[in-house]
Design brief:
The structure holds 2 protein chains of 2 kinds. Helix content of chain A is 26%, strand content 30%. Chain A is α/β, with parallel strands linked by helices. The longest helix of chain A is centred in the last third of the chain and has 12 residues, at 193-204. Chain B is globular. The chains are: A alpha/beta, B alpha/beta.
Chain lengths: 205, 272
């Protein structure tokens, strides 16, 4: 039996890329916007490219927000949020006003700190090294300071809650997060070559 | 530390991949040619990003291009930016759902509407790569051109770039039509047209056909990524050896542990 993974399709995100990485790992990939399918999935991926506000509106309109909470909180399904998907799991975002998130990660999403000389450009785009925390499941078998692909302007900050990994772009920010069945990466593992595939494999193990 | 990027550009036109010189296109081969000469599921370990552009001059055959994008991006685990004739939200959406992580906007940058704002509200500014093709003339100096280099934009280029940097875009992609395909190296004067303290990531293209030329680009500290579209010069192990030379020369590129090859399928499915 192939491992089944459901990609939550709320109309935003690089679904094809995520699907192709998961299929490369030998998974049976379901792309779905069906609440029942999502509730019953053991492995969920919440991808995302785009604006926080539009994404939350789309999730709540289709009641996918509730399905995600049911799956993770009631059924203990494993969830991996990627990039915007990670941010959506936070308490709230200050992109485009103020919007509440799913609240699975008790952190706020704010814009990367701008520096006076613009030495650190925003958006933060490219491969950057990630310092992983101890006892991380996601970073098992990965060298410390492995490179992952980032493309974002907003971020969460590390506050010692959960197992955290960090990266630096003008400030230290949260690159990945895990706590029990909740996993999230600000970077794109599906676009981070062998390092990203290893991380996805770790999530699925 | 944020690494520099080596970008490979694929130019697609009416079913074929092209070599471009000063924006004059020469047919090289179709998708099968590309796959037999550039195995992106393997060679993509030697580039940091792929740009795939539909440069068809007549009507764009969207469906064929999208299928091509899907085929190339499948099992290619590097970021992909794609564009060519993106004029609407739905044009952008179909690319982003077919393997692209970012959309490239060129001629639409010069339409007087809120396109960039609307795009960024939908997909975020980090998904938007603004591409400006530049041509030099003895009379007018540097000017932006649109529609595959066929139409000069009359606004001052400095102003255009200044405005773009204030717009909701993720990064800026500057291409010199005069140096395109010549092997003369990048035109670094383009960078002087940008405002000081340009806070958007900068990609430069046009004129690099070997690792020496790529290295010249990386030595300029304003540049975040260098790009080449030279489809003939990097066949087979070309990208691999270029990358190794760049790393030996001290360019901070991400380094992949290529010896780590897991049998993922067996690991994942053994416990089921």
């Amino acid at each position: 039996m192939k491992r089944s993974v459901t990609i939550i399709d709320y109309g935003m995100g690089n679904i094809w890329s995520v699907k192709s990485a998961l299929e490369y790992l030998g998974c049976n990939v379901i792309v779905s916007d069906d609440n029942e399918v999502i509730k019953d999935s053991k492995y969920l991926v919440l991808p995302g490219v785009g604006s926080f506000k539009k994404a939350m509106i789309s999730l709540s309109k289709s009641k996918l927000d509730k399905a995600i909470l049911d799956a993770t909180l009631k059924n203990q399904s494993k969830l991996l949020g990627i990039c915007l998907g990670m941010q959506l799991m936070g308490i709230k975002s200050f992109e485009d006003g103020e919007t509440d998130g799913l609240g699975l990660i008790s952190k706020k999403v704010e814009k990367l700190k701008e520096t006076k000389q613009n030495i650190f450009k925003i958006p933060h785009i490219g491969f950057n090294s990630v310092k992983s925390g101890p006892n991380s499941i996601l970073f098992k078998d990965l060298a410390d300071k492995s490179d992952f692909y980032f493309v974002h302007s907003y971020r969460m900050l590390s506050d010692g809650n959960g197992i955290e990994a960090t990266a630096v772009n003008g400030e230290i920010f949260l690159a990945a997060y895990e706590k029990e069945n909740i996993f999230a990466t600000q970077f794109h593992p599906e676009k981070s070559q062998i390092n990203g595939l290893t991380l996805l494999k770790n999530f699925l193990c | 530390m944020l690494k520099k990027r080596l970008i490979f550009i694929l130019l697609y036109c009416d079913g074929y991949f092209m070599l471009s010189r000063n924006f004059r296109l020469q047919r090289v081969g179709d998708l099968n040619w590309l796959i037999s000469n550039y195995d992106f599921s393997h060679i993509s370990f030697f580039i940091d990003e792929l740009i795939i552009l539909d440069v068809s001059r007549k009507e764009k055959q969207t469906k064929f291009f999208i299928d091509t994008l899907k085929t190339i991006s499948y099992k290619c685990f590097v970021p992909i930016a794609s564009g060519g004739g993106v004029h609407s939200i739905s044009d952008a959406k179909i690319l982003l759902r077919s393997g692209a992580d970012k959309v490239i906007i060129n001629s639409s940058l010069f339409e007087k509407n809120n396109f960039l704002v609307n795009l960024s509200e939908e997909f975020g500014d980090q998904s938007i790569m603004a591409s400006v093709d530049v041509k030099k003339s003895s009379e007018h100096g540097y000017q932006a051109v649109k529609k595959s280099g066929s139409e000069i934009v009359n606004e001052s280029l400095t102003e255009i770039l200044n405005n773009l940097i204030q717009s909701p875009i993720g990064e800026l992609y500057l291409n010199s039509i005069d140096n395109d395909g010549t092997g003369d190296g990048y035109d670094f004067n383009l960078i002087n047209l940008l405002p000081k303290n340009c806070h958007k990531p900068l990609i430069i293209a046009g004129g690099a056909d070997n690792s020496k030329r790529l290295l010249e680009g990386f030595k300029n500290s304003s540049i975040d990524a260098v790009a080449t579209a030279h489809l003939f010069n990097f066949i087979g192990d070309g990208l691999k050896s270029a990358r190794n030379k760049l790393i030996e020369s001290g360019v901070p590129l991400p380094i992949w542990d290529l010896d780590t090859v897991y049998d993922y399928k067996n690991i994942l499915n053994a416990n089921d």
